[in-house]
Amino acid sequence: MKLTVLGSGTAVPDLKRNSAGYLLEENGKRFLIDFGYGTIHQLLRLGITYHAIDRIFLTHNHPDHMCDLIPFLFATKYPLDPRTRNLPIVAGPGFGDYFDRMMQAFNHWLTPESYQVEIVELDVETRTFDGLTVTSCKVAHIDMSRGFRFTDGQGKSVVFSGDTDYCPEIVELGRDADLLILECSTPDDMKVEKHLTPKLCGQIAREAGCRTLLLSHFYPPCDGPSVMDVCRREFAGNIILADDLTVVDI
Ligand SMILES: [Zn+2]
Ligand SMILES: [Zn+2]
Predict the structure, then answer these.
(1) pLDDT at 96 over 90
(2) Which CATH number does 2-249 carry?
């Protein structure tokens, strides 16, 4: 599997860090995990258009994790070049109702006519999508929030926390993962409820026993070299601080 960070930022607009989004590629398939604002242009930098995304997974419906779905859906209706393949979107319970209301709010200007959007609600379960095994767990952020673990045919695994606070579920989801991607919102002395800090990220990685830890989702005060130092005191494995367009082969 190949992971490309599309956005390593947050709700704060930043020219260097777009909002949360990741591209996971395996066996010719392209999956988006979160779709925050700015990520649609990051895809274009990689030569990937709205035709070439096979499936979208959303960890939750906060704007910094899903807002580029709106221009994406609108673009797919471009009469000279409409998308024609169905688009599955996988998210936690309640997303289907939210999605319907979002489509209504746009007076159905986003509703596709040349293909279908298929909403799949994943609770706490394991299913196979396009050859990848996907396990989801509830994480400590909002009700809809789910973390995702993707496992390929060779047993390699990558785990996405989405936004979360420390919780046993994310430790379990990240158990022995080849790559664990955790949000790292604020420094420890500015800890915000329902989000992680460098120390907590290191603790989760150590308890999970993951191979490589990728930290992402940095608010501006958490964007500096001390993040690595603090995390390193907790976790002895490989640590990467994400930048936009960082690539990790799993
Ligand atoms: Zn967020
Ligand atoms: Zn959030």
Answers:
(1) yes
(2) 3.60.15.10
